[in-house]
Amino acid sequence: MMENLDSSDGLKEFYVPTYILVPESSVESLPDVPSCPVLVFVNSKSGGQLGGDLLLTYRAILNEHQVFDLGEEAPDDVLRRIYLNLEMLRRNGDDFSAKLAQNFRIIVAGGDGTAGWLLGVVSDLKLSYPPPIATVPLGTGNNLPFAFGWGKKNPGTDRQSVIAFLSQVKKAKEMKIDSWHILMRMKTRTDSSCDPVAPLELPHSLHTVAKVSSTDEDNLEGYDTYRGGFWNYFSMGMYTTKNVEFT
After folding, report:
1. Among 2, 25, 89, 239, whose CB has the most other CB atoms within 10 angstroms?
2. What is the per-residue pLDDT across 76-125, written as a single tens digit (0 to 9) for each?
3. What residue stretches are annotated with the DAGKc domain (predicted)?
4. What are phi and psi of 202, to 5 degrees?
């Protein structure tokens, strides 16, 4: 995978070795820990054809295993797999993986809903070193990326545009965002074989709460419980008007 990386582009700083991403892979030896290893999540259905094009470009210039299509795999499944593997490697004495985990950053390409999805997943996982999230505007409104300085328009899907965005991610200042969560319960219907809301139809901001034990306070007998995460941000804009005189 390293053959994709051109040292003149500085792409090695963003590279994640395959053995970190795919459990039981052969260990790769790198001279230094990358300063800005990224995990890239692309909503291939966003932005018309742009999402698919962006997916191909990222996979062409980085390790294809560190670039994920959200239409094929949910981010919570991906991150759980990677971080469980990181913990196993750390326990086996792999210092490289432990240092790499502290430098992780996430890039998510999609609309506001996709960005909120990743924010919720990272929050729910309660990681020791939660990675900062950079958002590539690829949706309709793109209010969240705009509020944090990433702009409202897609920066481009060609190689040079993607490399330029990676450089911005490396230089970006980490900022905090306020979040709040709710629990929503709906009484389970006993007169029908259908659930009140099919799990596949839930918005990404809501997650089904799994019953961990009989004493789990998040669950009540006879109710379906959902947990939702929401993100507060604020932005301002200006516009000017011209006075028109009619005669």
Report:
1. 89
2. 899 999 999 999 999 999 999 989 999 999 999 988 888 888 888 888 88
3. 33-186
4. -70, 140
CA-wise closest residue to 43 among 106, 105, 109: 109
Q: Is the pLDDT of residue 139 over 80?
A: no
- Nearest Cα to 100, choosing from 190, 16, 220? 16
- Are residues 49 and 132 located together in one domain of the fold? yes
Burial class (CB in 10 A: 0-12, 13-18, 19+), 47: buried
The range of the structural domain enclosing residue 32 comes to: 2-171
Tens digits of residue pLDDT in 222-239: 777 777 777 777 666 665
Distance from C-alpha of 138 to C-alpha of 188, rounded to nearest angstrom: 37
Strand partners, 135: 108
User: Residue 121: which of 130, 109, 112 has the closest Cα?
Assistant: 130
Q: Do 101 and 159 sit in the same domain of this protein? A: yes
* Token pair listed for 26: 């052969």
Q: What is the CATH number of the domain that holds 111?
A: 3.40.50
Whether residues 192 and 97 share a domain: the answer is: no
Decide if 165 is inside a domain: yes
Beta strands in the chain (DSSP E): 38-42, 67-69, 105-110, 133-137, 178-187, 206-208, 223-232
Instruction: Out of 171, 195, 224, pick the residue that ends a domain.
Output: 171
CA-nearest of 93, 91, 101 to 21 is 101
Q: Is 138 helix (H, G, I), strand (E, B) or coil?
A: coil
Residues 40 and 86 in one domain: yes
Does residue 242 form part of some domain? no
If you count them, how many residues does the chain have?
Answer: 247
DSSP 213: -
